[in-house]
Predict the structure of Secreted protein.
Amino acid sequence: MKKGDGAPQGVVRLIGDGSTAFTGTQPRQPAWQRLKQGQEPPQFVVFSWDGAGEDSQKLFSHFREVGKKYGATMTYFLSGVYLLPEAKRDLYDPPKHSPGQSDIGFNDLQGIRDTVRELRGAWEEGNEIGTHFNGHFCGEEGGVGTWSVDEWKSEINQAKSFVKHWKTNSGLKEEKPLPFDYDKELAGARTPCLEGRKNFVQAASQLGFRYDTSGVNDQIWPNKDHGLWDLSMQLVPVPGREFQTLSMDYNFMVNQSGTATQGDPSQHEYWGNQMRDGLVEAFERSYRGNRAPLIIGNHFESWNGGTYMRAIEDTIATVCVQKDVKCVSFRQLADWLDAQDPAVLAKLHTLKVGEAPSGGWTSFLAPKPAAPAGVPAAKPAEVKPAAPH
């Protein structure tokens, strides 16, 4: 049974200028339980989207339908400037850049209207709305990797402000509000280009975030870093190649067509199949091994003829329907982790990539027998946390 099934209850209470509203508990959220003694953990898979917005490709609305079809909830990382019209661009004051600058531009009124519609529907369907911040600055010249903790706080606060004041900024005051309090909804993020994580995590921790997914890790069970769950991107197989790559469409593309976003058309189908098969192989490695959550990141882009969007849809259709598999948002995964016994999570973390418990899950997660009377219990081995990335 899931808590909050159905539409949110209660009267809509507008917040601020009416851009957002409190509508009750988010619907369609799972009610997690602590693992029972010896119980095999579920296989979690997180599908997430950087810079989520609805444009002429209509990929946001498409993947909402895919999620509903296969019972998958996802995380949509909204770029705040997608709710800021071009005419109001100077309201954005990015760290280490002049006001009104953005490497991903701003939006027009129809784009804002469409994006808000998709955000509203996604949340009502149980999906998470995170943040991908604003201007998406990468590299050494003022990129997010050069930002201080205070500059990150400024960027976060501005991202929140653009969501909380989109009606005032756009003039679209007759539109319905977003059905959530963004100050409470916002629980985590992925930084642009996976840069700047060290200072971002410090800022996010101070601002009450619950997780970060900006690092690089193997397919192992997560630890906490500065009080945040480290739900980093993961290294996954590239079928037919001798290396692994990050579990993200962009990284598969770079390894296939380099910086050309529309490479050799004759290779598009093969490249998409390679990504799909790599992600499914990574899934099987966890599913039949250590059951570590699989983290997958994407962009609403038609790179190489849209082959990566097809690959993601095929992957969702393949993995989300299998037994004991839960395709969830990052926030839902963090909720499950918080509900577990820390000692059990520490033990899960000892399992290596693809490593199933040698004696089976019942034995591995069974409580240790009590020491006989008069015999001191053996001192448990120290479990060292993984080094932060």
